[in-house]
Task: structure prediction
Amino acid sequence: MSTATIFGRIRARIAAVERRQWVIGSLSVLMTFIIMFTFLIENRFGYLPPDPIIAYFKNWEDGRSRADALAEQEEEERLLQEQADAIAAQLDIDAEKAAPAPAPAAPPETKEPAAE
Result:
């Protein structure tokens, strides 16, 4: 068998393939290369997880009393209210008419330990 015969058979075989088969074959090869390319990129650069959220909290001293905690809480609320009032003034909003401030909740009652 000569090389001309072999190439003639290959050419006849390719000519017999329908257009639909060419499209499906091309799509399957394309999808394979996309998946391989994605794995190569991931291998090269690695998975980039989102940055962690760092939450800071305040450490209180051991001798902190309930009165100190309530005073600090009231001071923080006062500062937040001042900031809200400043923003309302910048935006020309009358904060008193928009939403009246809710009454502060009463602190929960604590029972004193019984004296023995």
